[in-house]
## 1
Amino acid sequence: MPFAPISFHDLAAPGVGDLQPYQPGKPESELAREYGVSDIAKLASNENPLGPSPRALEAMTAAITGVHRYPDGNAHDLRRALASRYAIDPAAITFGNGSNDVLDQVARAFLSPGRSAVFSEHAFAVYPIATLSAGADAIVTRALPADHPEQPLGHDVDAMAAAVSGHTRVVFVANPNNPTGTWLRAGQIERFLDSVPSEIVVVLDEAYVEYARGSEGYADGAEWLTRYPNLVLTRTFSKAYGLAGLRVGYALSSPEIADLLNRVRHPFNLNAVAQAAALAALDDRDHVARTVALNERERDRLGQALRELGLRCLPSAANFLCVEVGAQAAAVNENLLRAGIIVRPVAGYRLPRFLRISIGTEGENDRLLAALRTSALAPLLERTA
Ligand SMILES: *Cc1c(COP(=O)(O)O)cnc(C)c1O
């Protein structure tokens, strides 16, 4: 009997067939394989260019001998340390295998077919993945215009509040946003939290909070947690703490929401080595301070140099710049790859004229600038600044 052709695409759960897989930054090993280049500068995934804290490395080494045991499923020590750092109830913390996992927990706990989540155009790619995977509808609002004086292409929180419907259960707000780097001022967030019905879960994604604290008008969301029980803050050890490869993220929320997230959380989602490393990294305040200081210095310097090349950078409170290189962005990216420099094309975020460039060490940033000035690359750049 011949087989009738089966379309698993049609059989997939609602929403899954419409998803686009997440596009990560190209790994260094892949560039080395494909282009035969060595000595690679990876400025593509907003990682810490200084690497992990030496204390985290020590803690990981010590933890490795115990990996025949399951990890502490409640991450007791890390939970205590974070609770005391932020002066919050330990029961208000939910851990994730990266904060992406926490975003997915929110979606699985609050979204389902017939419900919707609201987020902005050009917002972080995991919001549509989490929303559609849960079978819910994505309501995507228009971003602010490209010529907005403070937050070009940033979140339009008024449009987001207006898009909330009777079926909406979750709103995702990235502050600062990836890939634009733009950030919301404290007053805007407060106004937004006041205007959204209090039964709607507002996720404030603070993956870059350590970098953003110095930016004008920025406020860390922790102070609003007691006032808005529908608020969920998500944070990560992947960025300023330099532990992207270990996958440690967490949410701060009301204990009631934390209890719901904990019900859908996969058991042992935080591995033992990661718990030990995060605990040590949290304690190494000097390493984070050095990281943030390097970022501020180099973000200013790189931004200035890019503007001198005629390239427009969106304002950034994070550890990357979203740079308008023009219609040839794909070719610019290709030439940078050949020069051993990995940046991030953001056409998938509907920003085809831009490249997102993570702030590297001084040497890495100089290398990027030198490549952009070469005769192969310079003619491809559209000067709009
Ligand atoms: C990098 C990033 C995350 C964090 O990802 P992890 O899963 O914690 O590595 C979350 N949100 C945004 C906006 C990001 O850019």
Note: The pocket of pyridoxal-5'-phosphate is lined by residues 46, 98-100, 124, 174, 178, 205, 207, 236, 238-239, 244, 249 (CB under 6 Å).
## 2
Amino acid sequence: MNTIPKRLDSVYLAIQNCQIDHGVTQSVQLLAVSKTKPAEDIESAYQAGQRQFGENYVQEGVDKIHALKHLSDIQWHFIGPLQSNKSRLVAEHFDWVQSVDREKIARRLSEQRPTGQPALNVLIQINISHEASKSGLDEQELLVLAEKIAELPNLTLRGLMTIGSNTDDDALRQQEFLRMHALFERLKTKYDSVDTLSMGMSGDWQQAIACGATMIRLGTAIFGQR
Ligand SMILES: *Cc1c(COP(=O)(O)O)cnc(C)c1O
């Protein structure tokens, strides 16, 4: 039996309840993270109403985008680490890139975005936990990169993305999420196009919403274990 529509329904409901419980006023988008899952699983989620999907690996993502071309209103988000030699495929096929953390990548994405396509939506990934294993920019460097991105013709700066610490320490993660929210509010005052704070995964999304996330990224909760 296909459990994806059922899981998705309970996720939508849980998001609503979380918003009510925490009295948050921002609207919250759900990004369905489909890495390692087949195109049929994405199609099931689509039939249940989901439109935004996230992929971590360039070639795998591009293959699924081709396979699901007929679902033309899907918004595809690239959320994995991005090497510059793969940037062209991303610029040509995706609608969003959430993992931009350096000028070189931003510049290439803008140059490689095909003419006639709308600007590529970009989030700057912040390494809020300062863990060496994680990609992302240090907070202090945010405004410099934001300014560079804002000048690039084929990118639209939409906001920030982060991956919280993988920890049982709720207070530590809360501190990180609140710092992200403060950075996001600051960025919003400078750029009208900024409206997205992407944080929270299957293990910590309620906390992220309580701290101001406008987009959460769920894989396991929708598609099951990888
Ligand atoms: C895999 C992944 C997710 C989803 O993770 P789950 O724990 O399965 O919800 C979210 N964001 C990023 C950047 C990921 O790589």
Note: The chain has a mean pLDDT of 96.
## 3
Amino acid sequence: MNTKRSEELYSKAKNYFPGGVNSPVRAFRSVGGTPRFIAKGKGSKIWDADGNEFLDFCASWGPLINGHAHEDVVNAISTTAANGTSFGAPTELENHLAELILSNNPYIEKMRFVSSGTEAVMSAIRLARGASGRKKILKFEGCYHGHSDSLLVKAGSGLVTFGNTSSAGVPEEFVKETVVVPLDNEAAVEAAFKEFPNEIACVIIEPIPANNGLLLQRKEFLTFLREICTRNGAYLLFDEVISGFRVGFTGAAGLYDIRPDIITYGKIIGGGLPVGAYGASAQLMSNISPEGGVYQAGTLSGNPVAMAAGIAQLSLCLQKDFYTNLEAKTKAFTATIRNYAAQKNYTLRIFETGSIFWIAFSNDEAIRTAEAIDPKSMEKFRVLYHYLLENGIYLGPSGYEVGFISSVHTEDELKRASEIFCAGLDRVFAS
Ligand SMILES: *Cc1c(COP(=O)(O)O)cnc(C)c1O
């Protein structure tokens, strides 16, 4: 495969950007090799700068549930942009997108649009702190919530810990307000509430943790979180930036039928443009400025182009049987690979929910915590990754990342892709 142009562009990019990229995983550090510079995307496929074609399972890390450059989305963007891209004043399209979401989502009553998932989570945490008058937040090891200071904190040693920063530049004082516990562990959460009575403003979790493998939680654990938050006057915050509109229109809240106090969205919500959102009950949202004392603002928040893209995308998602079809396609795809691996006795599990899947080189029936992922298994992923890339299949360049299937991946494409995956496994286990 010719990669000359990508190599040239990458070496140029290194003069402009740290590591040559504008977001770290793109640099291919965990799989090695040169990142492919993408020139074009249409439907389920992308083409790199050298003209190589790939069937795409990265979907820009999740947003593109209807594939690349979907006609409805592109039309909405261009028609809207022709009339101005942003005014810093309210527009009717904000109402439309909010109506579309709120009238189909019983878990939130009011919302606010922002411009990224990070911003949504950062604002939602401020809301929880502002409304509760408490400082501490409780998060789980293995969940990603964007790159705001309070959330770049990882577990230290011990069950309930103040953790360590996972980034330079985050003050100790911030870290002290973030309590980190393992997933799938009721006792750890109970211990945290016991250690910090009346101090925890909120418990934040990815109800479907999908940024560090796919760590599917037991429903009882999520139900337990709901109960312990209610009992202790803490808010339960579901970070649904990745699961929202992905496992169903109402995300994980709907899938598990659990009512969190605050929900954050991003990725799919903007149809491929930078949009995030957070929502809660009307009463809780009344704490947000200008109604209440919790300040939050944004120059480009709710801009008409992004709103139009979101409306087009979510309208497609609301079509009858959209999620049922997507899930059925995903199941057929993973079943082929799973059956092949079983027949060959390969050490492999595929975890999935809705149209999200994750390949783990493990024999464990369930992987529910960050700790349960064997770092050595990533060597195998690296081999698989490059085999797939060479054979026209693009995944996010890390074994800790999940894959996504879109509504425009055809059954034929998926069948062909599953065969290439199986051949890739032969390669992995031959070495
Ligand atoms: C992607 C993601 C974020 C961060 O969103 P950005 O738009 O990248 O800032 C936060 N939380 C979760 C669960 C995510 O998947």
Note: The first helix runs from residue 4 to 16.
